[in-house]
Amino acid sequence: MKRVINFSAGPAALPVQVLERAAAELLDWHGSGMSVMEMSHRGKEFISIAEKAEADLRELLVIPASYKVLFLQGGAIAQNAIVPMNLLRGRGVADYVNTGEWSKKSIKEAKKYCSVNVVASAEDQNFSYIPARETWKLSADPAYLHICANETIGGVEYHWVPETGEIPLVADMSSNILSRPIDVSKFGLIYAGAQKNIGPAGLTLVIVREDLLGQALPITPSVFDYQQQAENDSMLNTPSTYGIYIAGLVFEWLKAQGGLAAIERHNMAKARLLYDYLDQSGFFVSPVRQEDRSRMNVPFKLKNESLDEEFLKGAKARGMVQLKGHRSVGGMRASIYNAMPIEGVQALVDYLREFEAQHG
Ligand SMILES: *Cc1c(COP(=O)(O)O)cnc(C)c1O
User: pLDDT tens across 210-256, in order?
Assistant: First the structure.
């Protein structure tokens, strides 16, 4: 069996140890005589899986007791609607920072439920940077302030947590959650689709401060009412049981790697390896301002775009896949989430060097 080096932005590569463990446990989970997929979500086996997953996640992110952890469905895109439905709490305005394609989607959806104040936008420079906090024009009494912590398509990432005072900070962390330690207490709510850094698609993680619950709009579907889901341990409906199980294995794997501080060092080393090569190259360019570059998603371009196809073909021949950039920005993108080993990034850099030597 030969596995590729998978640079997919999502669904993305999972740690091979996690896949091996899932394979070994597929037909008979811990002597239960069945697969996790076949278990009742209310049975003691699955409850133990879900509780362990939550406990390990709480340990990894050091989540304070005053926060609920919810395992929902609908992806981050559903959260674009679910967040305003739950967090407006009688207010009519929410503040959003526009840093790229995912911010834009969040803003568009929120407009169905409230008026949106865009406090800052990086559109003036093609979403190649994070606008400085001093430039943000917050509204007088917004329900919350929303950021996209890592723009998966544009490749910009916050390397700081914005100060928002009493205003709850809401972050879409779909593509950088668990890539580094974070201070959860600085956030009112964090959400993430699972398929980048957590587990399989179909599972959505929400971490929300308790005092923000219980004031959802009356139209909010019950399964998307955070309070109701919190009261029911995320089992108001049948949750993504297999997704929670795999996420739990990923959390165990992260702990075995030394936790998030160790993972962050690893991710920094990977990102540095790739950006350092791009920066000294006269052939490839990174379009993102240095201090705002994502450690997870690295877009880059060939100065001579007519070589794009040949570049991708050569990558594929070397077992490197999914390097084509998002259709909205073109060029290339290497997504190097937690599960990407540094050897995979080294193989890419070796190929960049070789390709440049041949065509540069
Ligand atoms: C992938 C992604 C989404 C969309 O997630 P879905 O699970 O498809 O809803 C939203 N925001 C960010 C930052 C993403 O990377």
Answer: 999 999 999 999 999 999 999 999 999 999 999 999 999 999 999 99
Specify the CATH architecture of the domain 16-256: 3-Layer(aba) Sandwich (3.40)
- Is the beta carbon of 153 within 6 A of some atom in ligand 1? no
How many angstroms is it from 44 CA to the middle of ligand 1?
Answer: 32
**How does pLDDT run across 134-191, given as a tens digit for each residue?**
999 999 999 999 999 999 999 999 999 999 999 999 999 999 999 999 999 999 999 9
Catalytic residue chosen out of the listed positions 56, 95, 172, 225: 172
Strand 189-193 versus strand 204-209 pairing type: antiparallel
Question: How many residues appear in the chain?
Answer: 360
Q: Does the active-site annotation cover 253?
A: no
Give the CATH number of domain 259-359: 3.90.1150.10
Convert the pLDDT of each residue in 22-77 to its tens digit: 999 999 999 999 999 999 999 999 999 999 999 999 999 999 999 999 999 999 99
Q: Which atom of ligand 1 is nearest to the CA of 194?
A: 7
Q: What's the CA gap between 148 and 158, in Å, rounded?
A: 8
The Cα–Cα gap between 293 and 297 comes to 8
Domain ranges of the chain: 16-256, 259-359
301 token code pair:
């371009």
From CA 227, how far away is CA 234, in angstroms rounded?
10
The pLDDT of residue 346 is: 98
pTM here is 0.98
Query: Looking at 102, 225, 233, 270, which residue is catalytic?
Result: 102
141 an active-site residue? no
Is 102 among the catalytic positions? yes
Residue 76 Cβ < 6 Å to ligand 1: yes
CB 50 within 8 A of CB 244: yes
CA of 193 to the centre of ligand 1 (A): 6
